[in-house]
Design brief:
The protein is built from 33 helices and 14 strands. It is mainly α.
């Protein structure tokens, strides 16, 4: 790669080039990459590691070797599993900050003497990750979602022995009371984050950490523990967001201590959000001499003489987000987004200044890139995307390109959620699809946005409204008269999504929603097949596209699950309609027709009374194609014979039914054959055969031989040149008449009886 300076590429581009193997370890040493940018490149590469997750091991090792050559000081494994190959890379680095991801993402990857994977405790894991240099330089350690079972007894002293200069420790989610152990192991600890769900009922020993300057914990409900906090006289930042349902909220206990003369002489920032109580905060603020920032999200408190962060407006929300970004307090960032109800927005009209809305959206972009809060933050953003999008459009300050960028941003988030197994993904799918397929926004979408929405919506139609919306969206975007809006590659991609969606539902138990889903997907597929029919036969792109259509049909009808869905009348009808359209094209592989005939009519014979006219219509279409061009098909004449037998079997089954179901008239089958525009005398012959077999839904079967006479006339004129064709036609026509004659006699008898009843009734 010719790039020698990061100035010529963005951080994300550099990370992607490294992951895709476009940078070799030797050439990476020529990069002029400053330390801050190297840390960003590493974080970006780890966040996008999924790009090469399924790649060969050698490719992953190569990417890690390149990253190891950069001057990285901050290693963030917040979203990536830790493997043995990562240890080799980390041993080459000198780190000041290390972040270990969620417990479920930590993979040991080491073997003991017995070749069995050994489970490492936290100290052992850190020993393998830290180089000799890192052990002396590391000052910040962050273990996300820390669970107790990896922390053995005296783990704190073990970590302190590894990193004697550690000053900042984050153990979010840790449940044990470890303050005494931490005080003994880290007497110089300056920052501690032990936030977890629920309340800390006891934090005995926290007062021993006399050098603490930053403390982030949850609400405390024990009065003695609250008083012990005041032993931390060097504390500059105290964050104790409370819960809404506690017997004695922390802020009451804190106020009582202040009334007794206790104080924090150095405290500059105090966060007591989510207390949901009415208390005069002025007295608290005045008792803290150096307080500069006071946060009480969830309360309407406003102190004009002191910065007070809340979410009462877009502007105050922006200030709160920026503040927590500076503090790197991920939990409070989520609280801000969750509590913000966009109070400045009334009926879709922004009451804030345009630049504030633009700043707010820019901050959202920034928040999503943060780890590990990206997924949770993104969930909140996706749930609010309808409101944000409408505001962007209503404000009239955002260009069409900016709106498209936001849409693409939300869609990328959803793809990330799907791959990460975020709970309640169906809710997000509903919100995104219902918003982006509305007429007001639909016209602003780029083709790539459209295809992504198709993929999301077709995964699982959550409700009838959304299914109809997606179907209309698809058909409106690429109507037959203007099929150039999507390129050939786009059509293939949309077709792929449709196929995957059909396969997903075919694997489910039979039910009405799944039936409607499959039918609607097949309806769109038939629409796409019609689009491809407009292309010239010698068009290579059209030929490739048609081949994919063919392969899909063959694979679909060959699946064992297809048999149990085929008896559903409208699904069978749509499959046959797709194939009828495909018969009009010459770009399909000849073997397709043979394979399709064998598979589809094996299934049809199992349910002969179901949708019989359409089955016979398609059978006649295939037979006509085979008889017109027998030399084009492998085993074409044998298949023609097989189709003759199939048609006869269908006729026998149909005429033998004592109480036939209400089906469409066979005349409609004849019309379908004619509408397929097959030219030639054999097509007319097939139409005549179908015309000789009729069913009237208002009465019993009635059969007549008008079509047979036409067949005999054509035979006598010598219009058919192939002797085999002549024999097939004559045999089939005669056998159909022989089979249907009993039905005709029964029908005539019943019609006579009905006529007698009507006459008798009229006389009475």
């Amino acid at each position: 790669m010719s790039v020698v300076s990061l100035e010529e590429l963005t951080v994300e581009q550099v990370a992607r080039n490294i992951l895709k193997g476009r940078v070799c370890p030797s050439s990476s040493r020529t990069f002029v990459v400053p330390e801050p940018d190297s840390n960003k490149v590493f974080a970006c590469a780890m966040n996008r590691w999924s790009i090469i997750e399924s790649a060969a091991e050698s490719k992953k090792v190569k990417a890690l070797e390149v990253l190891a050559t950069l001057p990285i000081t901050e290693a963030d494994f917040g979203q990536k599993s830790i493997r043995r190959r990562d240890f080799v890379m980390l041993q080459k680095m000198t780190l000041t900050s290390l972040v270990i991801g969620y417990e479920r993402n930590v993979v040991d990857g080491l073997e003991n003497d017995g070749d069995d994977t050994c489970e490492l405790n936290m100290v052992q894991l850190l020993e393998h990750m830290a180089s000799a240099e890192t052990r002396q330089t590391l000052i910040h350690l962050n273990v996300m979602r820390a669970s107790v079972h990896r922390f053995t007894e005296h783990w704190a002293q073990g970590v302190a022995n590894l990193f004697p200069n550690l000053q900042s420790l984050n153990l979010v989610g840790y449940h044990d009371d470890v303050y005494r152990d931490l005080a003994n192991a880290f007497p110089n600890l300056k920052s501690l984050n032990l936030r977890k769900k629920g309340n800390f009922n006891a934090i005995t020993g926290v007062g021993l950490l006399r050098n603490l300057e930053v403390l982030m914990i949850e609400s405390i409900t024990d009065e003695e523990n609250v008083e012990e906090l005041f032993q931390l006289q060097k504390l500059r930042v105290l964050s104790v967001p409370g819960t809404r349902h506690v017997n004695r909220p922390f802020i009451y206990l804190f106020r009582e201590c202040l009334d007794r003369g206790l104080t924090f002489p150095e405290l500059q920032y105090f966060d007591c959000s989510e207390m949901s109580i009415d208390i005069p905060y002025d007295a608290i603020v005045q008792a803290l001499p150096k307080l500069e920032h006071f946060t009480c999200i969830g309360s309407s408190t406003y102190l004009g003489y002191l910065p007070s962060y809340n979410v009462e407006s877009v502007r105050s929300t922006i200030e709160a987000i920026e503040h927590y970004l500076r503090l790197k307090n991920d939990g409070m960032l989520l609280m801000v987004l969750y509590a913000n109800q966009m109070a400045d927005f009334r009926e879709g009209i922004p009451q804030c200044a345009p630049h504030e809305l633009r700043t707010f959206i820019a901050l959202i972009y920034k928040l999503i890139e943060r780890k590990p809060t990206g997924l949770t933050t993104g969930t909140l953003v996706c749930c609010n995307c309808p409101k944000i999008l409408k505001l962007m459009i209503a404000s009239r300050t955002f260009s069409e390109a900016e709106v498209r960028r936001f849409v693409a941003f939300v869609l990328r988030l959803f793809r990330k959620f799907e791959s990460s197994g975020v709970p309640h993904i169906d809710i997000l799918r509903n919100v995104i699809c219902e918003t982006l397929t509305t007429p007001g926004i639909r016209g602003l979408l780029a083709p790539e946005n459209y295809l992504e929405i198709c993929r999301i919506g077709l995964r699982n139609f959550p409700n009838d409204y959304l299914r109809a919306n997606i179907i209309d969206f698809l058909t409106d975007y690429c109507p037959p008269e203007d099929h150039t809006k999507l390129s050939g590659d786009d059509l293939k991609l949309a077709f792929k999504y449709l196929v995957e969606s059909v396969y997903d539902r075919m694997d489910e138990p039979e039910n009405e929603p799944a039936q409607h889903h499959i039918f609607d997907c097949l309806r769109i597929i038939s629409h796409f097949v019609a689009l491809s029919a407009f292309a010239e036969p010698d068009n290579i792109e059209a030929g490739d596209y048609s081949k994919e259509m063919s392969m899909f049909l063959l694979q679909m009808i060959s699946r064992p699950q297809f048999g149990r869905w085929l008896h559903r009348g409208m699904i069978k009808f749509k499959v046959l309609c797709i194939f009828r359209v495909m018969l009009c094209k010459r770009v399909h592989p000849p073997a397709l027709y043979t394979s399709f005939a064998v598979n589809i009519f094996e299934q049809t014979i199992k349910n002969p009374a179901d949708n019989l006219p359409h089955s016979m219509s398609c059978a006649g279409s295939i037979l006509a194609k085979l008889l017109l061009f027998p030399e084009q098909f492998e085993g074409g004449m044998e298949v023609a014979d097989g189709l003759n037998e199939t048609l006869l079997h269908l006729c026998r089954s149909f005429s033998s039914l004592a109480d036939p179901p209400k089906l469409l008239e066979l005349d409609k089958a004849r019309d379908e054959i004619e509408s397929a525009q097959f030219m030639g005398t054999v097509t007319e012959h097939v139409c005549a055969i179908h015309q000789s077999v009729r069913y009237e839904p208002n009465g019993p079967q009635h059969f007549f031989d008008a079509g047979l006479e036409e067949i005999m006339r054509k035979l006598s004129r010598g219009e058919w040149k192939h002797q085999h064709v002549d024999e097939c036609v004559v045999r089939m026509a005669k056998e159909i008449r022989d089979v249907t004659e009993p039905g005709w006699e029964r029908g005539e008898k019943r019609r006579a009886e009905d006529e007698q009843k009507r006459t008798k009734k009229s006389r009475n």
